[in-house]
Amino acid sequence: AQSVTQLDSQVPVFEEAPVELRCNYSSSVSVYLFWYVQYPNQGLQLLLKYLSGSTLVKGINGFEAEFNKSQTSFHLRKPSVHISDTAEYFCAVNYGGSQGNLIFGKGTKLSVKP
Amino acid sequence: EAGVTQFPSHSVIEKGQTVTLRCDPISGHDNLYWYRRVMGKEIKFLLHFVKESKQDESGMPNNRFLAERTGGTYSTLKVQPAELEDSGVYFCASSQVGHQETQYFGPGTRLLVL
Q1: What's the pLDDT score for residue A10?
Q2: Between B42 and which of A77, A106, B25, B73 could a Cys-Cys bridge form, CB atoms 3.0 to 4.6 Å apart?
Q3: Which one of A31, A45, A102, A103 would you mutate to disrupt binding with B, by most B Cβ within 10 Å of its Cβ?
Q4: Residue B25 has pLDDT above 60, yes or no
Q5: A8-25 per-position pLDDT tens digit
Q6: CB atoms B48 and A51 under 8 Å
């Protein structure tokens, strides 16, 4: 079955520290990969996406992610976090086809402390 | 350009009542999706419209849920009668034809059934 795994439900980190949020997906021939962010009391905002091409993709707010096909992973990274990065982060996968619905991980709550 | 909008932002109803959620997609986006996040669970796909036609409704939980998109513009999702387990956040997303892999989400409607 198609699935997306975010192993860490919560990640606490101090301000200006680096962070990595992990995402693994069940293998498929072709996938489109996304990270969305939900700030407190707001909706889902697209952070970055991988459709094809370079495996390192850069998104908004200094975030980047690397597509690793052999490890079926799409981990999200930021070298130095800010208090304002406190939010819930969702990894999502489109396994292709005409339907186009996304399969989401359970989310990772990033808490940045001063 | 306006993003995806949803109304209401919050709704509190009693078990057995009816609730109708509305979604206005980004102008020109023919694809419209409904998703739901039940507390503590992952965001799950409900259904997908292409213009006014239902492309995929495999995620609809049961026949108490009715989605419509008359005229291919805004969409409504009606829950009748509502049950306690219907509580959660209902998200709407839209995408362009030809770029349907990239979905833009609305702020969500938080539904609480008492």
Answers
A1: 96
A2: A106
A3: A102
A4: yes
A5: 999 999 999 999 999 999
A6: no
User: Which residues in chain B are closer than 8 Å to A104, comparing Cβ atoms?
Assistant: 35, 42-44
Contact B105 A36 (CB under 8 A): yes
Alpha carbon of A31: minimum distance to chain B alpha carbons (Å): 10
**HEC per residue, chain B:** CCCCEEECCEEEECCCCCEEEEEECCCCCCEEEEEEECCCCCEEEEEEEECCEEEECCCCCCCCEEEECHHHCCEEEEECCCCHHHCEEEEEEEECCCCCCCCEECCCEEEEEC
> A interface mutation test: which of B5, B48, B105 has the most A CBs within 10 A?
B105
What token pair was written down for B78?
């009606």
Which residues are CB-neighbours of B16 under 8 A, at least 6 positions away?
A: B81, B82
Nearest chain A residue (CA) to B57:
A99
Mean pLDDT of chain A: 92
